[in-house]
Structure formats: structure tokens, C-alpha cells
Predict the structure of HD domain-containing protein.
Amino acid sequence: MTTPDRLQQQVTFLLTCDRLKHVRRSTYLHDASRAENSAEHSWHLALMAQTLGEYAPPGTDMEHVTRLLLTHDLVEIHAGDLHFAAPDEQQAAQAQAEADAARQLFSLLPPDQAQVFHALQPNSRPAPHPRRASPGRWTPCTPCCSPGPAEAPAAPRANRT
């Protein structure tokens, strides 16, 4: 692949990733003023990892952790966000949507980079949140996990394209 073709693929990928700013999450900013977007979420997690990395267990590869945090929600560009306390059926559907989204998004990159980005993606959604009391009911662990006014936590926030 020639350098101009490679660069064009990378720029196309980056411009597509800019759409992460438009994916509204089901969680709110710490001041509860509005829902955060997925780009803000990923940036803030990466910043926290870099700031608090000294408290990680010895041997933790903080560069790898930061890469994971910066890329873990890129698939939401196509799959949307789903609240962590959503019912298991919705979690399963989201996992499939995210796998499809990863293939679609990372296919924009040159093959060697696509492979790297695929390797950074989780294989499935996390297990149900430990604070979830029962199906359809949950207990927020922090104010940022609380839904906004009249917002159901189990409702997916899909911004599907």
C-alpha cells in the first residue's frame, strides 16, 4: 500500500472517530448538568489512569491501560451506548452490535492497524454491574451512575448508523 493510500485510510478512520463526540451516554457528568458523551468518557478515564497510575499494582503497563481506555468505546459510534445495568438480553444484543461495529470501523484502517485496534477491544460486555439488585432494578454506586430526571437506566442509548 502506498503512503498516500495508507494516510487516506488513517484520516478517514480519524474523521469517523470524531463522531464519538456525538454519542450520548446514559451517565451524567459529576455536576449532573448533562449527560456526558463517549469521547469525554474515554478521555477522562485515560486521564485518570495516567494521573493515578502510581496506585496500580506493580508491573501494570499503564501505556497499554491508556490505549484500552482511549479505544474501548469507539464501537459506540455505530453501536450506541448501553447503560451498564441494562438487562442481560440487551447486554447480549449490544455485544453483537459492538462486534459488528468493530469490524465496520476498523476496516477503515490499513490491515496492520486494524489488527491492533481489534486486539484492544473487549470480547464481550462486562458482567452485570455488582450493584444491580435484580433484573430491571439497580442501585447507583456514584452520582455519575445515576440516570437523569425521568430517564430509565435500562433503556439503551443507541446512536446506530
